[in-house]
Amino acid sequence: MSYTILTGDRATGLLHLGHYIGSLKLRVALQDDHQQSILIADLQGLTDNGHDPEKVSGNILNVMADYLAVGIDPAKTNICLQSGLPALSELTMYYANIVSISRLERNPTVKAEIANKSFGNSIPAGFFTYPISQAADITAFRADCVPVGDDQIPMIEQTNEIVRKINKIAGSDILVECEPLLSKVTRLPSVDGKAKMSKSLGNTITLSADEKEITAAVNKMYTDPNHLKVTDPGQIEGNVVFTYLDAFHPDEDLVQELKLHYIKGGLGDGKVKNILEECLQETLRPIREKRRKLINDKGMLLEILKHGTEKAVVETNKVLYDVKQAFGLNLFI
């Protein structure tokens, strides 16, 4: 079956291993057989960075370089910029009039993000309503499949609620419901095992990380605090090193042997970390080298993004026309 796929990332920093294993590899695999668009979500990035817009604008091309470095082919996948698509903001306004504040407050993803960012009583309105904006992003491309982490499933559910309400107003199915596409690893923990991955917290490994940064990150990875001696039996659950081995090491049999040995006792954390580090160095080396060349050609990156955005303007305006027609607002067309 051929799907229309929309996915994307907030332009607030370099992409990291969580992005890579969570959806980037999947996007690369899908682009040969599916119609796929990737949205660089700079507007969404401003929802909690409006006070520091450079954090968003300064990372747009970094995200572009990350995409291309992992294998996204702009000849197969259309890459576009959220702020370059006026239809998305207008659709957000229409959708905002059919979604209640209480429904937004019940969204588990929003609740978790608000708690994680410690906004207190100063939640930006744009952040609070970003499920509506995300629904506009998805529906504007008539995407019926969206690669997401399991934490984003409530966002898909709310998008589909909006789709059904708009279709009821229109009296026909002008918008398309979507379904989540989960990767094998739905969420990768931070290296310290304590919080969500964040470059500002220093608990992640970016796709551009050099050899020393990878080594340092693996060395401080959380393991089993009770595994004090090599001879001690160890725990696998909650052990970040083994979580990363499961996600990245190509030899599943070897990883299983390591787990059994660790549980039994006689396998030290240092040896396991060495195996993981070697794996991550091999994984990131070609990505880092390709990315270094890409980021030095900003003109090329801008041209790809400009072309993709112009193509997406035409696509999203068609959906906007249908939604405006449903509300009886195409008076001047």
Rounded average pLDDT: 91
CATH first level of the largest domain: Alpha Beta
Distance between the termini: 36 Å
CATH topology label of the largest domain? Rossmann fold
Write out the strand line-up for the largest beta sheet, numbering strands in chain order: 1-2-3
Tally of structural domains? 2
Major beta sheet, specifics? 3 strands, parallel
**Radius of gyration over all CA atoms, rounded:** 22 Å
Total of helices? 15
CATH architecture of the largest domain: 3-Layer(aba) Sandwich
Shape: globular
> What is the helix fraction of residues, given as a range?
40-55%
- What's the assembly state of these chains? single chain
CATH superfamily of the largest domain: HUPs
Family: Belongs to the class-I aminoacyl-tRNA synthetase family.
EC number: 6.1.1.2
Enzyme class: ligase
Pfam family, one: tRNA-synt_1b
Q: Any overview of this molecule?
A:
The protein is built from 15 helices and five strands. With 333 residues, it is mainly alpha-helical. The chain has two domains: 214 residues, HUPs (Rossmann fold); 86 residues, Orthogonal Bundle (Tyrosyl-Transfer RNA Synthetase). Strands 1-2-3 form a three-stranded parallel β-sheet. It has a two-stranded parallel sheet with strand order 4-5.
SSE layout and pairing:
Layout: E1 4-10, H1 17-30, E2 35-41, H2 42-45, H3 54-57, H4 60-70, E3 77-81, H5 86-96, H6 101-106, H7 108-117, H8 125-128, H9 130-140, E4 145-147, H10 153-170, E5 179-181, H11 211-219, H12 240-248, H13 252-264, H14 269-295, H15 298-326
Parallel strand pairs: 1-2, 2-3, 4-5
